[in-house]
Design goal:
heterodimer; A: 502 residues; alpha+beta; five-stranded antiparallel sheet; 46% helix; elongated; B: Amino acid/polyamine transporter I; 74% helix
Chain lengths: 502, 370
């Protein structure tokens, strides 16, 4: 097991002891916190101490069940009779005081009868959490709107609700040396690939960090290539998306205190899939999915190509277009690369400020910044009209990626591309794209190739990545992740057609 | 050195990738100038030369596969050692790798030259050269699967260029093909010899064979790949003969690039510039696969680590690109590489075949007598 920062040796006996001694050790261990409520009762001549952290426990349960039973009794108490007679579940016996004190931190109440050799704790924690809300970062038009919350038990509840099968495995890991977080690995036993499960289990077990702040941080600790710009695991706050992935044989990782979940392994193309594609009709879903690929391409290529053509290759632009470009650029004193960088930066500023500001102000700033600044920049002769269209469309296109992380990656990649286009022109853009493809081909996610199903090629899986087929033709799970069971439903039944007038 | 080279399963590739690899490695720079060279020999019957060359290529592939199938999982380097003994075998292997390096260097220089001629007359060679070499190092250090992936993915990313030749078809003159069969058989064969330059690269089969997962299925993709290349060269040849006047075609350095000049759209003029830049994606797999052959070959022959060889190759390439500048020198290099390619890539397998057969027969007889 992992090394803990303090020793919690279960074999060291701290009891029996007196209540005073007990109290002093406890208070010393918990840094003399004023939050500890330590009360001493006398029942039938026995001294009984009841102690807990004030705001971590459910007071109703404490008063009704625990104190009510304890104080009303006419018999002598010992550890086993307390466990037996107090109508609360989650009771535990402890022989070590430090171990007992640790359970208090997670919302237990401890009971100690003087001179007994065991203490008892009951878990009656009261955790503050927000109710399930609507998804904000990944908003959908169709389909379930509920999103994960920070509470792991709520999230697991939602997952169990959606995937109510005995097949669902939720393996528990405790990660963090100082601030400990519970991490759950979720998968379907009869589907998920054993190698993947083993790899993920190993990575989670081997992880030694002080604390895991969020699922997105955990995903960076366990990824394959940490110098890449691209996200290697899909992070989602949508339970339906996670459950869809899990039911196709992939793995989910949930982290306590984080409203995001990790889907692994993920491929490059899965970052352009939205669950909405499945809720839509197949042909419309296909159209939308392809639209996103086109958008990504536009976002990558358009600004660099503009910069390259205007700087080096006027001859590529047809004469009528060149004339209007020229008149638009006539006032601009900078070379195209500075002009483009300036505008791209402006757009990035708008996006960032819009994300940081409260929603209402953010919208206003977006409109004011976009329209007023853009218009003013053109009139002041700092940029050309055409470039504003180019930059705005490429920026707009980058927002179509359903994953915020992928959208950010695409926007960042544009900058080096623009730079190289401004330095050596179109050949630079091509070399940049070549680099981008090499990088994608070399990358892996949880040991599986990132560019699946394009390379290593998997013709059967094309329909799940680039477009969608009607359900009657799509009766298998995608083979890319090697699930144990391929068939979703019998093909014959799916393809069966009724006769006319039957 | 082991004759057979058994490769770990995680490095193996499926056989059908060979199709894309072969098409990609053959349609490098050779195809850009092919119509001119063929036309100089066979005139308007050049397309027949291409067909003859294609048929001969299938023979070569057949011979290569025949040799390879005699062994369990061997590459050329292992076979040479098996036949000629360790010393001569290793020497021949080294020479082969030197030839591959020369091909690599010549195609790099040639591409940089095309870019300089078409787009940036002022740009120093080392600039584009070093960018390309950096990309080569990055890719080859990803291993054989990355190299194959590049060949596969870039096939789809660059093949669309070919369809834009449809515009030139409308301008073709059918009279240019007449009179048919004016060229003598000798001219036709000389034309085929010239066409052979666009088929260089088939050597990859000798090196990639141990990496193929399902070795029984190799023949189909290999032959299809050669057929595809033949088809591409044939189409380009036919369009060039029909589109250009004979005198123009004879003096044009890269007729295929000129063909693209006529392609024009309301949003794009001078499509040939796009083609020249996009051609980086066409020839990049060549660079990668040739560099990979060198690094892996050196490991097989002498046990050098691939990383070290890769760095050495990269620096040699950079030196070559920077210092080979004179047009005469470049032409000599290109000429000697292509004529060496003819002998090494096409004639050598045919010579090797009887040797392998004799050796195997002798070997098996000896095995029986014991």
């Amino acid at each position: 097991m992992r090394k803990r920062p303090f020793s919690k040796d279960k074999d060291i006996k701290s009891f029996p002891t007196t209540i005073e001694q007990f109290k002093s050790i406890l208070e010393k261990y918990l840094q003399n916190s004023t939050d500890i409520s330590f009360t001493q009762y006398e029942v039938q001549g026995q001294k009984i101490a009841v102690f807990f952290i004030d705001y971590m426990v459910d007071k109703n349960l404490l008063d009704d069940k625990l104190l009510g039973t304890l104080l009303a009794s006419k018999t002598d108490w010992d550890a086993s009779s307390i466990l037996n007679e107090v109508p609360l579940d989650g009771g535990k016996q402890h022989i070590n005081l430090i171990e007992l004190a640790t359970t208090l931190l997670s919302g237990s109440v401890g009971v100690y009868v003087e001179n007994e050799d065991q203490a008892v704790s009951f878990s009656i924690s009261k955790l503050e959490k927000r109710p399930l809300g609507k998804a904000e970062t990944e908003s959908l038009v169709l389909g379930p709107q509920v999103s994960f919350t920070e509470s792991l038990s709520t999230n697991l509840n939602v997952i169990r609700w959606r995937l109510g099968t005995h097949d669902l495995v939720t393996e528990k890991f405790i990660i963090g040396e100082r601030g400990q977080s519970e991490v759950r690995l979720v998968y379907l036993k009869s589907l998920a690939n054993d190698t993947d499960v083993q790899t993920m289990r190993q990575r989670l077990k081997d992880l030694v960090v002080d604390e895991v702040e969020d699922a997105s941080v955990l995903s960076q600790y366990i990824e394959d290539n940490n110098s890449s710009l691209f996200p290697q695991y899909y992070l989602t706050e949508l339970p339906d998306r996670l459950c869809y992935a899990v039911s196709k044989g992939r793995l989910g990782v949930l982290v306590d205190k984080s409203p995001t979940s990790i889907i692994a392994p993920s491929t490059f193309f899965s970052f352009f899939e939205s669950t909405e594609d499945i809720y839509m009709r197949w042909n419309i879903g296909s159209f939308l999915r392809m639209l996103r690929f086109v958008a990504m391409f536009i976002s990558f290529v358009v600004t660099p190509t503009y910069v390259a053509c205007v700087t080096f290759h006027y001859e590529v632009i047809p004469t009528p277009l060149l004339a209007s470009l020229g008149s638009s650029r006539a006032q601009v004193p900078f070379p195209p690369i500075i002009e483009a960088m300036l505008l791209e930066l402006l757009i990035e500023l708008l996006r960032e400020s819009g994300a940081r500001l409260p929603t209402k102000v953010g919208q206003t700033i977006g409109i004011v910044g976009g329209i007023v600044l853009g218009q003013a920049a053109v009139e002041a002769g700092l940029t050309s009209n055409v470039l504003i269209i180019v930059v705005a469309s490429s920026s707009l296109a980058s927002f179509t990626a359903p994953s915020y992380l992928m959208g950010s990656a695409i926007r960042v990649i544009r900058f080096p591309l623009i730079l190289i286009a401004g330095l050596i022109g179109l050949i630079g853009v091509t070399l940049g794209l070549i680099f981008f493809f090499i990088h994608l081909i070399r990358m892996t996610s949880l040991g599986r190739p990132y560019l699946l199903p394009a390379y290593p090629v998997n013709w059967k899986d094309m329909d799940d990545s680039f477009f969608r087929l009607p359900f009657s033709l799509n009766n298998t799970r995608s083979t890319s992740f090697r699930p144990k069971d391929m068939n979703r439903y019998p093909k014959k039944k799916a393809k069966k057609k009724k006769d006319i007038d039957e | 050195m082991e004759v057979n080279n058994v490769v770990k399963p995680n490095l193996q590739i499926r056989a059908f990738y060979l199709f894309f690899i072969i098409v990609n490695i053959q349609t490098g720079l050779g195809i850009l100038g092919a119509p001119r060279h063929i036309f100089q020999e066979a005139k308007q019957d050049g397309w027949m030369s291409v067909l003859i060359c294609g048929v001969l290529m299938h023979l070569v592939v057949f011979a290569m596969l025949f040799i390879l199938k005699k062994y369990e999982s061997a590459d050329l380097l292992g076979i040479q050692v098996d036949i000629f003994g360790t010393w001569i075998g290793k020497l021949l292997g080294t020479l082969y790798l030197v030839y591959i390096f020369a091909t690599l260097l010549s195609s790099l220089i040639n591409y940089i030259q095309i870019v300089q001629v078409f787009i940036y007359p002022q740009m120093p060679s080392w600039m584009l050269g070093s960018l390309l070499v950096i990309l080569i190092v990055y890719t080859v250090s990803g291993g054989v699967r990355t190299a194959v992936g590049i060949a596969f993915v870039f096939f789809f990313l660059s093949f669309w260029l070919f369809f834009f030749l449809y515009k030139t078809v409308g301008y073709m003159e059918l009279t240019s093909f007449r009179p048919i069969l004016e060229a003598s058989p000798r001219d036709l064969l000389l034309g085929s010899y010239q066409a052979g330059y666009s088929f260089i690269g088939i050597e990859i089969l000798f090196f990639l064979y141990p990496f193929i997962e399902d070795k029984k299925k190799v023949a189909l993709p290999a032959h299809l790949g050669v057929a595809m290349t033949t088809f591409l060269v044939l189409v380009v040849m036919i369009i060039s003969i029909g589109y250009f006047s004979p005198t123009a075609l004879e003096h044009m350095l890269w007729p295929v690039l000129t063909l693209f000049k006529v392609v024009e759209y309301p949003i794009i003029e001078r499509f040939d510039l796009i083609v020249v830049t996009q051609w980086a994606m066409v020839i990049f797999p060549n660079f990668i696969l040739f560099s990979w052959i060198i690094t892996y070959g050196m490991k097989r022959l002498y046990g050098f680590t691939q990383r070290k060889t890769l760095l050495v190759v990269a620096s040699l390439l950079l030196i070559g690109i920077t210092f080979i500048k004179k047009q005469l020198l470049i032409s000599t290099l290109l000429g000697s590489v292509s004529s060496a390619g003819f002998w090494i890539a096409f004639i050598y397998p045919l010579l090797l075949l009887p040797l392998v057969l004799i050796k195997k027969k002798f070997f098996s007889k000896k095995g029986n007598s014991e």
